Amino acid sequence: MATRRKPSAAPTRAPVRDAKLRRLLVAALAARQRAWAPYSNYQVGAAVLGDDGRVYAGCNVENGSYGACLCAERNAVGQAIARGARRIVAAAVVTPSSPPAPPCGICLQTFAELADGSLPVLLANPEDEERTLTLDELLPHRFDASALPG
After folding, report:
1. Catalytic residue flag (residue 130)
2. Beta carbons of 46 and 76 less than 8 angstroms apart
3. Residue whose C-alpha is closest to residue 78's, from 47, 37, 118
4. Active-site residue identified among 73, 127, 129, 137
5. What percent of the chain has pLDDT over 70?
6. Whole-angstrom Cα distance, residue 109 to residue 36?
7. Which domain holds residue 122?
8. Chain segment 88-98, per-residue pLDDT in tens
9. 60: domain CATH number?
Protein backbone atom coordinates (compact mmCIF):
# COMPACT_ATOMS: atom_id res chain seq x y z
CA MET A 1 0.00 0.00 0.00
CA ALA A 2 1.37 3.41 -0.98
CA THR A 3 1.77 5.94 1.78
CA ARG A 4 0.59 9.46 1.33
CA ARG A 5 3.35 12.06 1.36
CA LYS A 6 2.93 14.71 4.03
CA PRO A 7 2.71 18.33 2.87
CA SER A 8 5.69 20.54 3.66
CA ALA A 9 3.60 22.59 6.08
CA ALA A 10 0.81 20.90 7.99
CA PRO A 11 -2.56 22.64 8.16
CA THR A 12 -3.23 24.33 11.45
CA ARG A 13 -6.26 25.67 13.23
CA ALA A 14 -4.34 28.60 14.71
CA PRO A 15 -5.37 31.94 13.24
CA VAL A 16 -3.03 33.64 10.80
CA ARG A 17 -1.19 36.33 12.73
CA ASP A 18 0.22 38.24 9.75
CA ALA A 19 -2.12 41.22 9.23
CA LYS A 20 -1.73 41.34 5.44
CA LEU A 21 -2.51 37.63 5.09
CA ARG A 22 -5.49 38.00 7.43
CA ARG A 23 -6.87 40.79 5.17
CA LEU A 24 -6.45 38.54 2.16
CA LEU A 25 -8.13 35.62 3.91
CA VAL A 26 -11.20 37.72 4.74
CA ALA A 27 -11.44 38.91 1.12
CA ALA A 28 -10.95 35.37 -0.28
CA LEU A 29 -13.64 33.94 2.01
CA ALA A 30 -16.08 36.62 0.85
CA ALA A 31 -15.24 36.08 -2.82
CA ARG A 32 -15.72 32.33 -2.43
CA GLN A 33 -19.34 32.97 -1.45
CA ARG A 34 -19.91 34.47 -4.92
CA ALA A 35 -18.28 31.64 -6.89
CA TRP A 36 -20.11 30.34 -9.95
CA ALA A 37 -19.52 26.59 -9.74
CA PRO A 38 -22.70 24.83 -10.94
CA TYR A 39 -20.79 21.88 -12.44
CA SER A 40 -18.22 20.96 -9.80
CA ASN A 41 -19.80 22.58 -6.72
CA TYR A 42 -16.18 23.38 -5.77
CA GLN A 43 -16.26 27.03 -4.76
CA VAL A 44 -12.91 28.80 -4.58
CA GLY A 45 -12.08 32.32 -3.46
CA ALA A 46 -8.75 34.05 -3.83
CA ALA A 47 -7.27 37.41 -2.98
CA VAL A 48 -3.96 39.00 -3.83
CA LEU A 49 -2.17 42.00 -2.39
CA GLY A 50 -0.85 44.24 -5.12
CA ASP A 51 2.32 46.29 -4.97
CA ASP A 52 0.01 49.30 -4.62
CA GLY A 53 -1.15 48.07 -1.19
CA ARG A 54 -4.65 47.21 -2.37
CA VAL A 55 -6.44 43.86 -2.01
CA TYR A 56 -7.98 42.30 -5.11
CA ALA A 57 -10.34 39.33 -4.85
CA GLY A 58 -11.76 36.83 -7.30
CA CYS A 59 -13.80 33.65 -7.37
CA ASN A 60 -13.91 30.73 -9.75
CA VAL A 61 -16.32 31.05 -12.67
CA GLU A 62 -17.21 27.76 -14.33
CA ASN A 63 -18.51 27.29 -17.84
CA GLY A 64 -20.22 24.38 -19.59
CA SER A 65 -17.28 24.49 -21.99
CA TYR A 66 -14.83 23.43 -19.28
CA GLY A 67 -11.80 24.96 -21.00
CA ALA A 68 -13.43 28.38 -20.61
CA CYS A 69 -13.51 28.15 -16.79
CA LEU A 70 -11.72 30.87 -14.85
CA CYS A 71 -9.88 30.05 -11.65
CA ALA A 72 -10.31 32.33 -8.64
CA GLU A 73 -6.58 33.05 -8.47
CA ARG A 74 -6.34 34.25 -12.07
CA ASN A 75 -9.55 36.22 -11.59
CA ALA A 76 -7.97 38.04 -8.61
CA VAL A 77 -4.73 38.67 -10.52
CA GLY A 78 -6.72 40.03 -13.47
CA GLN A 79 -8.52 42.43 -11.13
CA ALA A 80 -5.16 43.62 -9.78
CA ILE A 81 -3.62 44.19 -13.21
CA ALA A 82 -6.75 45.90 -14.55
CA ARG A 83 -6.62 48.37 -11.66
CA GLY A 84 -2.94 49.18 -12.03
CA ALA A 85 -0.97 46.79 -9.80
CA ARG A 86 2.13 45.39 -11.47
CA ARG A 87 3.42 42.98 -8.82
CA ILE A 88 1.78 40.60 -6.37
CA VAL A 89 3.22 40.62 -2.85
CA ALA A 90 0.96 38.07 -1.09
CA ALA A 91 -1.94 35.74 -1.90
CA ALA A 92 -4.66 33.75 -0.15
CA VAL A 93 -6.72 30.90 -1.59
CA VAL A 94 -9.78 29.36 0.10
CA THR A 95 -11.03 25.95 -1.09
CA PRO A 96 -13.44 23.44 0.45
CA SER A 97 -10.68 20.78 0.64
CA SER A 98 -9.11 19.37 3.77
CA PRO A 99 -6.24 19.97 3.89
CA PRO A 100 -6.62 23.24 1.96
CA ALA A 101 -5.76 22.71 -1.69
CA PRO A 102 -3.01 24.64 -3.47
CA PRO A 103 -3.59 26.57 -6.69
CA CYS A 104 -3.43 24.68 -9.97
CA GLY A 105 -0.33 24.86 -12.16
CA ILE A 106 -1.72 27.57 -14.43
CA CYS A 107 -2.50 29.77 -11.43
CA LEU A 108 0.93 29.17 -9.91
CA GLN A 109 2.51 30.09 -13.23
CA THR A 110 0.42 33.27 -13.28
CA PHE A 111 1.68 34.14 -9.79
CA ALA A 112 5.25 33.43 -10.99
CA GLU A 113 4.87 36.04 -13.72
CA LEU A 114 4.10 38.74 -11.16
CA ALA A 115 5.99 37.73 -8.02
CA ASP A 116 9.26 36.30 -6.84
CA GLY A 117 9.69 32.93 -5.18
CA SER A 118 9.24 34.28 -1.68
CA LEU A 119 5.58 35.16 -2.37
CA PRO A 120 3.59 33.94 0.65
CA VAL A 121 0.49 31.96 -0.35
CA LEU A 122 -1.99 31.31 2.43
CA LEU A 123 -4.05 28.18 1.79
CA ALA A 124 -7.24 27.87 3.85
CA ASN A 125 -10.69 26.33 4.03
CA PRO A 126 -13.92 27.38 5.75
CA GLU A 127 -13.18 25.00 8.64
CA ASP A 128 -10.26 27.22 9.71
CA GLU A 129 -7.50 24.93 8.48
CA GLU A 130 -4.66 27.12 7.26
CA ARG A 131 -1.11 26.78 6.03
CA THR A 132 1.22 29.23 4.37
CA LEU A 133 3.74 28.19 1.73
CA THR A 134 5.94 30.23 -0.57
CA LEU A 135 5.70 30.22 -4.34
CA ASP A 136 9.10 28.48 -4.41
CA GLU A 137 7.66 25.66 -2.29
CA LEU A 138 4.56 25.35 -4.47
CA LEU A 139 6.29 25.72 -7.85
CA PRO A 140 10.02 25.04 -7.39
CA HIS A 141 10.98 24.75 -11.07
CA ARG A 142 8.81 27.33 -12.72
CA PHE A 143 9.11 28.69 -16.23
CA ASP A 144 10.01 32.37 -16.25
CA ALA A 145 11.41 35.09 -18.48
CA SER A 146 14.97 33.78 -18.06
CA ALA A 147 14.00 30.81 -20.25
CA LEU A 148 13.00 33.05 -23.16
CA PRO A 149 15.49 34.11 -25.86
CA GLY A 150 16.65 37.72 -25.84
Report:
1. no
2. yes
3. 47
4. 73
5. 89
6. 23
7. 19-138
8. 999 999 999 99
9. 3.40.140.10
